[in-house]
Amino acid sequence: AQIALVIAAVLCSLVAGFLFAFAVVIMPGIRNLGDREFLRAFQEMDGVIQRGHPLFGLVWVGSVLALVAALGLGVGQVTGLERTLLALAGAIYLLGVQLPTLVINIPLNNQLQALDIEGADEATRRSARERFEPRWNRWNVIRTALAVLASAMLVVLLIRL
Prior knowledge:
This protein is about 85% helix and about 0% strand. It is elongated and about 60 Å long. By secondary structure, it is mostly helical.
């Protein structure tokens, strides 16, 4: 259980760092681009993920698998505050990071990927960006904060064990 917990803490922390980079560097960095350039930049960055970058997939999916394994193995082995930390970290990460990713951010990404940016007129590009950017950013900040919180809880749990 402890090995799964260490792996989960590392991978969840890497996901938190990835989301953090988008929240504080990447999205603010492309915010001042024109609509066409903003949409193309995001399509390209997201395209790396959607084309199945192996390290990204290993970290993202691995964080879920390792955390589920740590939960499954650890719930029977830890008690009291440690069990509470484990359960809360798991719930926060799975429901606060992964669930919004699946139901909000990925569908927004897919809508953007389907847009023919070069064939669209300026009004269509503006509308697409307005539907995408504020909602995507709001949910990314939420995911970032919760991923950092869950990762910190996993680290505290490791220290206590």
